[in-house]
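#structure-requests
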Amino acid sequence: MNQTMEFFLIILIFLEIFEIFWQRGKNFREYLNNLFYFYKKGVIIFILLHPTLYFIMFAQIALQNYSFLASLLVLIKIFDIGFKISLMDKIYNNKDLGSFETLLKTDYPLSTGIKGAGLIIYSTIFFFAFS
């Protein structure tokens, strides 16, 4: 593993921690409230608050790695943001939330494992994609 990739991995970890920090919440309702706060300010602001997507695309270009795993990582991040925007749109327009409605009504706490899943998953895929 070269030093550039190690440096990029460390940056990715810090960016993921930033995303975990601003998306925090003790339960699913608080998590969605934090997301919705920034969504109301504007979709562009909401998208810009996901710097790992742009960093992964930058890493692909800088390291000239367009492998399946590297491209899959970008695709997963795009689907993640798209899903969140879809969910925020349903909340904003008072549409049916389906099975997520029961999560909003209950106060099940979000565990540390769920909150940190993105950090572990994205860092691991990044490591294997770029090493």
